[in-house]
Amino acid sequence: MSRNFYHQMVGFCIQVLAVLFACAAGTENRDVSNTFRAWNTGDQPLPEQLAFVYKEMENLKHEQTLMKQKQESISQALPHCSQTPVDTDMEMNLTSLQSGSSQLLYTLAQYGDEGSGEEDSDESSDPCYHYTVLDQSWRATNYSTKNVACDRRVLWKGWYRLFYRGKSIQMPELCVKKDMCGTHAPLWLVGGHPRIRDGVVTRKVCGNWKNKCCMFKSPPIQVKACRGNYYVYKFVKPGACHLAYCADINTLVCGKCKRSESCISRDKITWMCKKNKIRVKANVHFFASYPAHISGKVNKIVYRKVYVNQGGAFNSRTGTFIAPVSGVYQFFFSTQTGGSGVTDLWLVVNGYWVAVSHSNIQGPNSVGNLSTYMTTLRKGAMVYVTHNHGRSWANASSNTIIFGGSLLMVRKI
Predict the structure, then answer these.
(1) Which residues contact 351 (CB under 8 A, 6 or more apart)?
(2) What CA–CA distances, in Å, run from 125 to 122, 159, 205, 230, 356?
(3) Which of 173, 263, 377, 401 is most buried, taking the most CB atoms under 10 A from its CB?
(4) So what's the pLDDT on residue 65?
(5) Final residue belonging to a domain, choices 23, 45, 79
(6) Helices and strands in the chain: count of H runs, count of E runs
């Protein structure tokens, strides 16, 4: 074939690809004009043009195959939800939905909107992002019907999240009356739901019958708390019929909680959104010295030489430490006796003398004494050291008259 024929074929293929990409751009709202700008000039070598054509044709075939697979999976999942026949004894399985249900039964991958935490380091394997939506109104704790469901007939696989008419809901943590939740013995969660930091936990499940909340002890299930005030469950087949997993209608309010709130309940009946406590992570440490002699009574030692003042709570001009947050603190202070007799230093907290560094020597000897004190302080508490009696010795490099402390734990008082 002639070289002109090759160029004609390449030009034709490029036009076809341009049409296909234009259609794709109309669907996905993307601009492909830049993609073909370089090929409209006709100054590219023939081998490079052919290689580009073959590569783009393979990409289009791959995308077409993926779209076909997605369409087939959707067409297979949704219609089957309403085609499963109900058994003659009126036992419903997972896919026989009552009226009012939104008929949602599919695997959902969550991305972004529920939030991800530091605990969820691998979204590809985290059930909080990969679960099956279970939205069946007959599972609600306020639903009673003559038709009874049996979850033992369901082929449970993987993790599930409960919904009620499109709104997030969770399992009850209290005994549910019999003949509710579309079954005879409703299954409820024993031991309560976990916290996010608990990860995946195993919980017992009980079914109420004949006034016994745990007449039926179903096999345990796994539960995980997810950011966004919802839970995922790894359901298994109950031990008998007619038992079915319940959805607590009282927990619908939890789906309205903000990211900064938690859904709580004291009686496990009335639920409410409550703002999360802000954990203060304070880093407070200080260490200072007095680089000279002290004699007699000094109401407040002004430690002028400050080595560490993390958090800035120690004031070197006044010698006073002011607690920046409420919590547990530990302090230390010391003296070096500069002559015979008694020398006393006291730690003062909010005007109260609480701990002493005491020494009593005879003759020209010198003795050092270090004292420590641990206490709980409110924010704004004032701490300093007073020289009550005697003589203390120090110089610019000795660090024998010192005062320091640290915040050990933030604590609400």
Answers:
(1) 382
(2) 6, 11, 25, 17, 58
(3) 401
(4) 65
(5) 79
(6) 3, 25
**What would the pLDDT profile of 194-226 be if each residue is shown by its tens digit?**
999 899 999 999 999 988 999 999 899 999 999
Same domain, residue pair 332 and 390: yes
* pLDDT score for 228: 87
Cα 300 to Cα 388: distance, rounded to the nearest angstrom: 9
Q: Tell me how far CA of residue 51 lies from CA of 42, 45, 234, in angstroms.
A: 15, 10, 50
Total domain count, the chain: 3
Dig out the tokens for 20 from the structure.
């296909």
In a domain, 242, yes or no: yes
Question: With bands split at pLDDT 50, 70 and 90, how would you rate the model's confidence at 246?
Answer: very high
Cβ neighbours for 125, distance < 8 A, ≥ 6 positions apart: none
Q: What pLDDT, in 10s, does the model give residues 337-384?
A: 877 778 889 999 999 999 998 877 776 767 788 899 999 999 999 999
For residue 12, give its domain range.
3-79
Average pLDDT over the chain, rounded to whole?
78
Q: Tokens at residue 302, please?
A: 């002004």
Query: In the chain, what are the helix, strand and coil shares in percent, each to the nearest 5?
Result: 20, 35, 45
Q: Does residue 358 share a domain with residue 305?
A: yes
Question: Same domain for 224 and 298?
Answer: no
- Which of 5-19, 142-156, 297-311, 328-342 shows the lowest mean pLDDT across its residues? 5-19
DSSP characters for 197-244? GG-EEEEEEEEEETTEEEEEEEEEEEEEEETTTEEEEE----SSSSEE
What percentage of the chain reaches a pLDDT higher than 70? 68
Domain boundary among 275, 298, 317: 275
Asked if residue 72 is part of any domain, the answer here is yes
